[in-house]
Amino acid sequence: MARLGLFFVIVAFFAPLSAAAAPYAAYVIDARTGEVLHSDNSETRLHPASLTKMMTLYIVFQAVEHGEITMDTEVTISKFAASEPPSKLGLRPGQRIKLRYLVRAAAIKSANDAATALGEAISGSEAAFAERMNRTAKAMGMRNTTFRNAHGLTDSAHLSTARDMALLGRHLFYDYPEYYNLFSRITTDAGLREVANTNRRFLSAYKGADGIKTGYTRAAGFNLVASAERGGVRIIAAVFGGRSTPWRNEEMARLLDLGFSKAPSRVAVRRPAKPAYTPGADLGRIRYAQRAPDRSPMPRLRPGPGVEALPDELLVAMAETIEETVVAIEATAPAASTLPEGARTPPPSNPGVVTAALPVGEPAPLPVPRPASLTTEVAAAPDPVVEAERVVVERLSTSGDRHWGINVGLYSSRYQAERVLLQTALTELGTLDEALRKVKQSNKGFEANFVGLTAEAAEMACERLKARNIACTTMGPAS
Question: Is 193 exposed, middle or buried (0-12, 13-18, 19+ CB in 10 A)?
Answer without folding.
Answer: exposed
